[in-house]
Write a structure and sequence with these properties.
Mean pLDDT of chain A: 90
Structural class of chain B: mainly alpha
Shape of chain B: globular
Low-confidence stretches of chain A: none
Mean pLDDT of chain B: 89
Order of helices and strands of chain A: HHHHH
Largest sheet of chain B: none
Low-confidence stretches of chain B: 1-8, 249-253
Number of helices of chain B: 13
Helix content of chain B: 55-70%
Number of domains of chain A: 2
Number of helices of chain A: 5
Oligomer: heterodimer
Shape of chain A: extended
Number of strands of chain A: 0
Helix content of chain A: over 70%
Structural class of chain A: mainly alpha
Strand content of chain B: under 5%
Largest sheet of chain A: none
């Protein structure tokens, strides 16, 4: 991978694997079954919904495939996935709506 | 997250460990429709980003957490600092501490090696299916619960590995017309959107999107952790003020 030595890639994989396992093992590993304080739970609940939209919003608005130029087809496709995912609560439906919209718009324009 | 089972009649606890194992397999089977394609996508995207076959498989076998894997991969292609890559990808996985805490009362008394194995296999699907079954069958013995838990990953984990391999072998053979570059954002949106259940989730997501865009120019990809922290605090604060009511009635009404 450009910019990364093989050793660096493997180090990232190893660190991520270990860190993820420790997160998963955390409370299963504790003796006595301690409970998380409510304020910690309150923050944990929102980690995916905080990290992932912040990661992908720039990718949607400034896509890599167009060299960072805003692409109306990709914007509409993202909104279609959001609408179907939110409205129908269906992951597969949202993916289908998003990619389908992109293919359709790319075919028409 | 599966709601409580609508069926009033509950079957008796399975007599054998095999039956518990099979129950886990059957209940988790529908999730293969999401897990399989997601793994193929990771395999293709990782290979196109320049990871070799061993590294791509290393991610899926050792980390076994798709959203975090794609997050790390995306930030690696952006040449982000290692600390930002690890912090962001692990933050995506922090929800699993919650899973770990919520399963501890059910399987926390198992032998250490079983808990260590269960931790490795603790993914969104095994958590959701197992907890639903544990709560429905509180009289199950500890071995029955562990058998069910292992059943929930008996299909999902092998399919996750195999489909990653298929995607990696497909790799650069995927035509550009399929616009797979954009399948990553679309998949992430599709994973998050159904989970926007309360005002707190929506507020967190909106803050994340706005700050993610506004801070995108910061050096070292620092915009991402800053935006995520602010969004997380927003969600927690909205919930603390008692505003985290469901946006609409779930199912019934």
């Amino acid at each position: 991978m450009s910019g990364w030595s093989d050793a660096a890639v493997w180090a990232i994989i190893a660190a991520l694997a270990l860190g993820t396992w420790l997160i998963r093992f955390s409370f299963l590993g504790l003796i006595g079954g301690r409970r998380l304080p409510p304020w910690v739970l309150r923050h944990l609940r929102y980690t995916p919904v905080a990290v992932i939209p912040a990661l992908i919003a720039p990718l949607v608005v400034w896509p890599q495939a167009t060299g960072g130029e805003t692409d109306p087809a990709r914007l509409v496709a993202a909104l279609a996935a959001l609408a179907v995912g939110f409205g129908l609560r269906s992951v597969l439906g949202a993916i289908g709506a998003g990619m389908g919209t992109l293919y359709l718009l790319n075919a028409v324009f | 997250m599966p709601a409580a089972s609508p069926s009033a009649q509950r079957p008796a606890p399975p007599a054998t460990l095999g039956a518990a194992f099979r129950k886990g397999m059957v209940d988790s089977a529908p999730f293969l429709l999401v897990v399989g394609p997601f793994a193929v996508l990771f395999g293709v995207v990782a290979t196109e980003a320049g990871l070799d076959l061993a590294q791509t498989m290393g991610f899926s076998v050792l980390v076994i957490a798709g959203a975090a894997q794609l997050t790390a991969l995306q930030l690696m292609t952006e040449n982000a600092p290692v600390i930002v890559i690890l912090a962001s990808a692990l933050a995506v996985n922090l929800r699993m501490a919650m899973y770990s805490a919520s399963l501890a009362p059910w399987i926390g008394a198992a032998p250490l090696w079983q808990r260590a194995l269960a931790a490795y296999l603790l993914v969104d699907q095994s958590y959701a299916v197992s907890l639903a079954n544990f709560e429905a069958e509180p009289r199950w013995s500890l071995p029955q619960r562990m058998a069910l838990f292992l059943g929930t990953v008996a299909l999902i984990a092998p399919v996750w590995y195999a489909c990653t391999l298929a995607g990696a072998l497909l790799g650069r053979g995927v035509p550009d017309a399929l616009a797979l570059d954009f399948a990553v954002p679309i998949t992430f949106i599709s994973l998050i959107a159904p989970g926007l259940r309360t005002l707190a989730h929506v507020a967190a997501a909106v803050v994340a999107v706005i700050l993610g865009l506004v801070l995108a120019g910061l050096p070292y990809n620092l915009g991402l952790p800053l935006a995520a922290l602010a969004a997380m605090a927003t969600g927690a604060e909205v919930e603390r003020r008692g505003l985290a009511r469901p946006i609409r009635a779930e199912g019934a009404a």
